[in-house]
Specification:
Blueprint lengths: L1 H9 L4 H45 L6 H14 L9 E9 L5 E9 L9 E2 L11 E11 L11 E9 L13
Antiparallel strand pairs: 1-2, 1-4, 2-3, 4-5
Helix pairs in contact: 2-3
């Protein structure tokens, strides 16, 4: 019996295959997990740049029309490519000084979500809006779904906000035409 046991310990013909079979699941989990986490982080970066781009594009103008907003929405979808953008929520709001040390909504427009009500009180960081001034507030919410679902099984909601001061006027008015 001892002789057979020694012979089995010296035999290594199938040892590499057994070791590979034991290590393969862990290696695959690391590879696919790394790919999924990297995709999620890249998407988060895209959502961040999309929010800043939305606020910046509106802040460059002297007035905003529906055509301007449609162009901004189209450009934001291009920024998020190759991720699907059908359920991306975008809200762009002009927040003005209310004259009493607070802030209120001058106008708000949204895609796939509800805009804020005109005149609604808003909380902004202290000192952001000067007396008589305004700020453009852009909010992006993106439900990221991994293409593999090996590690990340359910959607992750990525949200980012951005404040931008108007560049050429104190307040940017909204005109539907």
């Amino acid at each position: 019996m001892l002789k057979i046991l020694r012979k089995a310990c010296r035999a290594q013909s199938g040892m590499a295959a057994v070791e590979f079979a034991m290590v393969l699941p862990a290696m695959l989990a690391l590879v696919f997990g790394s790919i999924e986490v990297t995709n999620a982080l890249v998407c988060k970066g895209d959502v961040t740049s999309t929010a800043s781009t939305a606020g910046d594009l509106i802040a460059q103008g002297t007035k905003v029309t529906d055509a301007d907003l449609n162009n901004v929405y189209a450009s934001l979808a291009a920024l998020l490519y190759p991720y699907p953008t059908g359920s991306t929520q975008v809200r762009i709001t002009s927040i003005i000084d209310d004259g009493q040390g607070g802030a209120k909504v001058a106008w708000s427009k949204a895609q796939n979500t509800t805009p804020y009500s005109t005149g609604q009180s808003m909380t902004v960081p202290a000192g952001l809006i000067q007396s008589g001034g305004s700020v453009i507030y852009a909010e992006i919410t993106y439900p990221y779904t991994s293409p593999f679902t090996y590690i990340i099984h359910s959607p992750i909601t990525m949200t980012n906000t951005y404040y931008a001061h108007p560049r050429r006027v104190a307040q940017i008015p909204y005109s539907p035409n």
